[in-house]
Amino acid sequence: MAQPPGFVDPQFPGHVCKLHKAIYGLKQSPQQWYNKLTTQLQAEGFHFSKSDPALLILKTVSAQIYILIYVDDMLITGNDPQQIQDILSKLQTVFPLEEPTPLSLFLGIRTSTKLYGLFLDQQQYAQDILNSSGFLNCKPLLTPIALKSSSPAKPGLQHIDPPHYRQLAGSLQYLTITQPDIAFATNQICQHMHDPKQIHLQTLKRLLRYIQGIINFGLLIRRSNLTLQSYIDAYWASDQIDRKSISGSAHSSDTISSLGPLKSRLQ
Fold first, then answer.
1. Rounded CA gap, 161 and 154, in Å?
2. How far apart, in whole angstroms, are the C-alpha atoms of residue 246 and residue 204?
């Protein structure tokens, strides 16, 4: 590590500090923390999920425990409350943990327990997007994007604030987690982040007005048997500029009442 101001030795200005452990702010620190935490969890019998390295699973004869990790935030669930408490107590001897609380908000996604299942929404996140764009009290629309593709943008119609356009477009991508119906429109908007024009801004504003009308929508996860259904389609040569096609896919099950995950991408 480079010597901090005030600690530089004039005789050895090119020397660096040798660290005995990772400290906050280094690019290696997140990986070191992840390795330390997962090593401890593996010692307790957890193993990594094959589909997600941030998900660790513990299976015994009578219990199944799941731990989801995001930096220093953890989500733990399972069918054995006593074993969950034992695991947290063991982790507390190694790491300073905050008092665990019932699941309500995790990474901007609000969870509500209903009689018929678990409801996920991003209402507050969507409100923040609308507020930052000045659309908090806008009139809602019924569709996220115009049915007929717009004509190519004319030269010289540069958007006056490209950074703000990019910020909003990037924020919309995270909103598609619980609002898969905006995935296609968000895909169209993000294709022009490098050089947004006025016509692209109009498309973005239309989507924001649609979000205003569905701000309370989300995903419902129900307890049921897993019956997977997949839907795949393509929009052939739809882009009026380069005539690239768009592929789309949606997956649903008896557990998730809405279509998701939903993907929309250029071929």
1. 17
2. 19
Q: What are phi and psi of 81, to 5 degrees?
A: -55, -35
Torsion angle of C-alpha atoms 163, 168, 170, 176, degrees rounded to 10: -170
**Two tokens at 18?**
């040798």
- SS3 breakdown of the chain: % helix, strand, coil, rounded to 5? 30, 25, 50
Whole-number Cα distances in Å, 39 to 46, 91, 198, 200, 264: 9, 11, 51, 48, 37
Average pLDDT over residues 30-39: 92
Percent of the chain at pLDDT > 90 equals 38
User: What's the pLDDT score for residue 264?
Assistant: 66
* pLDDT tops 80 at residue 9: yes
Measured torsion, CA atoms of residues 133, 138, 142, 146, in degrees rounded to the nearest 10: -50
Q: How far apart are the first and last CA of the chain?
A: 44
Q: What is the mean pLDDT of the chain?
A: 85
- DSSP, collapsed to helix, strand or coil, labels residue 258 as coil
Torsion angle of the four alpha carbons 231, 236, 238, 242, in this order, in degrees rounded to the nearest 10: 130
Residue 90: the pLDDT is: 93
Which H or E run contains 220? strand 218-221
**How far is Cα 9 from Cα 163, in angstroms, rounded to an integer?**
42
Residue type, 117: G
Q: How far is CA 43 from the centre of its chain?
A: 29
**pTM for the full model?**
0.77
Maximum CA extent, the chain: 71
Sheet (strand 47-48) strand order: 47-48, 55-59, 64-70, 73-78
